[in-house]
Design goal:
With 445 residues, the protein is α/β, with parallel strands linked by helices. Helices cover 28% and strands 22% of the residues.
Amino acid sequence: MELLDIVVRARSAITSRGCGAVSIGIRDGSIVCIEDFDAALDTLSEILVPDHLTLLPGLVDTHVHLQDPGNTLWENFKSGTRAAARGGITTLIDMPLDSIPVTVSLETLAAKHMTAEGSLMVDVGFWAGVTPWNLNQLNQLDQEGVFGFKCFLANTGLPEFPSVSVDILKQALTILKEFDALLLVHAEDEEQLNKVPSVSGHNYSEYLSVRPASIESRAVSNVLENVELTGGRAHIVHISTSEAAALIQSAKESGLKITSETCPHYLILKDSEVDDGATLYKICPPIRDEKNRNALWEYLENGTIDMVVSDHSPTSIDEKAVVEGDFQAAFGGVASLQISFPLAWTQAKKQSVSLEQLTRWMSQAPAALARLDSKGSLEVGKDADFFLFDPEATFEVKASNLEHQQKFSLYEGRTLSGVVEATWLRGVKVDYQSPRGQILKKSKK
Ligand SMILES: [Zn+2]
C-alpha cells in the first residue's frame, strides 16, 4: 500500500467495524484503511490514542443557528464553529433564520457563504428557508447546494421569516419532490396556539398550558397527511412529546418518508426542575414532564426518533427576560452546541444507552439526513473527521469557559460526564487558530 500520512491507533474506537481496537490509515484527509490495532502500516506519522480515551467519528449537527451575519453578538461563524470543534462536532448545518438576512434566496445564501468563508473551524453547510413568498426560488437554492429546506407551522416572531399555512406546506412538498429535496418542519400548530390566550406569565405551568402537547400533535398530523398526499420527504425537528412520536411511529410503519429528531434538552430536563420565572428554560416547544422525557428515549431506541441534534439557538441574556421572569416575553431557545454530546451522554448513561448508540444518533443519522456521504462515521472512503473522548471523566459547566459568544448557560454549574480531549478535521488536528473548515454544498447527482 502507498505511504499513509497518518495512522491513528486506538484500543477503544467506534468505527464501521463496530466497537474495539483499530488502526485507521489516513491519506489526503480521507480514511483509506481500517486495520487491526497492531497492523504494520507504512506511514509518515502516527497517533497512539491513550487507553482511557475512545476514538469517535466527528459528530454531525444538522440543527444549529449560527446567526451570522447580522446577530453576531449572539453567535457567529467563528465562535460557533470553535464551540463545535471543542464539542467533537466536525460538521454542522446552519439554520436559515436568526441571521440578518434570513436564508431565503440566492442573494441571502451568497451573503452566508461570503461571511462564512475563512471563518470556519469545522465544515458548515446550509439549510434554506421556505416562506409563503419564495416557493419560486426553491429550485435555484437547491441548485446552489443547500442541503434542504426549513419551514415553520407556527409564528417565528420574525416578520422576514413568516410561518407557512398547511396549504403552502403542501405546495412546498410538491415542489421539493420534483428534485427530491427534504423539507424540515417546525411542528407547532399556529391556529391552535392562537386559540390559547397568551397571558404574560411567571409560572412555568401556565406557560406549559399555553403550549400543550396537542399543539405539536396537530402540526405533526398535518405534515404526515401532506407527506402522504404529495409523496414528498419531510423531517420533523425537535420532537418534544411522546404523543407526536407515536404519530410518527405509525406513519413510519405505513411507509411514509418521514424522519424526526430530538435534542439534548428534551432528553435531560423535566418540568419539575423549572422554577417559576426561570426563563433560561424557555424553549419552543417546551420542556415537559419526566414520563414524557423517558418516553423520548424509548422512541429513540425503537427508531421512531432518528437522531439527536443540538438546536443550538443562542441569544443575549436580555432577550431571555431573566429579570422580568416572564415566559411569554422571553426568547425561546437554548445554547448548548459545545456541550451537546456530554449533555446527552450524561443522561444516556442513566438510561443505559451505550456510547456506540448515542454516537450513531449524533453522527451517522444526521449525516444520512443531509446526505453528507463523506461524513458521519469512521469508514474507508469518508473524511478523517474524529475526536478523542473520555467517557468516564466529568466536568462542571462554566459558561465563561465555553467558546459560545454569549457567556451564560442554562446548564451553568451542572456536572456532566464525558470530556472531549481533541478534534481532527479531515486528518488535521483542530488548533483553534487556522480556519480550515469548508463550506459544504449538497453534491449534484
Ligand atoms: Zn431551531
